[in-house]
Amino acid sequence: MKIVMLGAPGAGKGTQAKMIAAAYEIPHISTGDIFRANIKNGTELGKKAKTYMDQGLLVPDELTLALIMDRFTEPDCEKGYVLDGFPRTIAQAEALTEALRETGDSLDCAIDVEVPDEDIVSRMSGRRACLACGGTYHIVFNPTKKEGICDACGGALSIRPDDMPETVQKRLQVYHEQTQPLIDYYKREGILKSVDGTQEVGKVFASIQAILA
Ligand code: AP5
Ligand code: MG
């Protein structure tokens, strides 16, 4: 199964993608998580990506495409994958369609998690993330059992540097300009599905399971 998650920053793509990956035993591939791991490890890619991410801008397509095409060559991708945060521009979507077409393959569906901009800032300000395993929580909507500690791996939680309110506004603007057009792109491809992302986490997942059934 090959799935793309669409939605604004903070819509819950990562939260749902992790649940899909666990339920359907496919890898969860988040370009944002891969960039953050590179920043943490001080790689050249991480240094380049950080300058864009900290401003709420997209990392250039060449860097992102090289990274994801390399990831697709890993053996776990044979079972399919759930893509979270990729594609994010029409050029990335076209490159993905073309790469799949070359092997006679295609995506199964693109799931748009719909959340209005008004809800996004409060979600981001309460988000806490685990840099060790990518776990994502919210101090009110999705709290950990022990404050500040990741339920999944016991790592320390932190606030993402791009979750400052001004940066969130910029990310929303960039989303509307560059990523929202993908909704029409996948509608035209006939594989777009939408879910109401304002429901609680378990209900959003139930809606996704109904789509994938
Ligand atoms: P990325 O890491 O992909 O960030 P994003 O798209 O801005 O999305 P987020 O991870 O912030 O939100 P999410 O939708 O995953 O929501 P989450 O589940 O955490 O990208 C970061 C940066 O990397 C980009 O700005 C860009 O610079 C760069 N980048 C990445 N990919 C790129 C690409 N392809 N091309 C170019 N640049 C790229 O949920 C948010 C919060 O809400 C959490 O606290 C969560 O617990 C809570 N929550 C989740 N669901 C619910 C619910 N149903 N109700 C209440 N709260 C909820
Ligand atoms: Mg995410």
Short description:
The chain is α/β, with parallel strands linked by helices. Helices cover 48% and strands 15% of the residues. It has a domain at 2-27 and 74-114 and 175-212: Rossmann fold (3-Layer(aba) Sandwich).
Notes on the structure:
The chain is α/β, with parallel strands linked by helices. The protein has a domain at about 1-25 and about 75-115 and about 175-210: 3-Layer(aba) Sandwich (Rossmann fold), CATH 3.40.50. It is about 50% helix and about 15% strand. The protein is built from 9 helices and 8 strands. The protein has helices at about 15-25, 30-40, 45-55, 60-70, 90-100, 115-125, 165-180, 180-190, 200-210; strands at about 1-5, 30, 80-85, 110-115, 125-130, 135-140, 155-160, 190-195. The strands form 2 sheets. A 5-stranded parallel sheet has the order 2-3-1-4-8, with helices on both faces. It has a 3-stranded antiparallel sheet with strand order 6-5-7. Strand 5 (about 125-130) and strand 6 (about 135-140) form a beta hairpin. Helix 2 (about 30-40) packs across helix 3 and helix 4 packs parallel to helix 5 (about 90-100). The radius of gyration is 16 Å and the shape is globular. The model has no long low-confidence stretch (mean pLDDT about 95). The structure holds BIS(adenosine)-5'-pentaphosphate and magnesium ion (MG).
Bound molecules: BIS(adenosine)-5'-pentaphosphate, magnesium ion
N-to-C SSE series? EHEHHHEHEHEEEHHEH
Q: What oligomerization state is this entry in?
A: single chain
| Number of separate strands | 8
Highest CATH level, the class of the domain at 2-27 and 74-114 and 175-212: Alpha Beta
In CATH terms, the superfamily of the domain at 2-27 and 74-114 and 175-212 is P-loop containing nucleotide triphosphate hydrolases
Structural class: alpha/beta
CA-atom Rg in angstroms: 16 Å
Which descriptor suits the 3D outline? globular
Q: What share of the residues does DSSP label as strand, in percent? A: 15-25%
Q: Which CATH architecture of the domain at 2-27 and 74-114 and 175-212 would you pick?
A: 3-Layer(aba) Sandwich
Q: How helix-rich are the residues, as a percent range?
A: 40-55%
Low-confidence stretches: none
How far from one another are the termini?
A: 12 Å
Arithmetic mean of pLDDT:
95
**CATH fold node name of the domain at 2-27 and 74-114 and 175-212:** Rossmann fold
Largest sheet: 5 strands, parallel
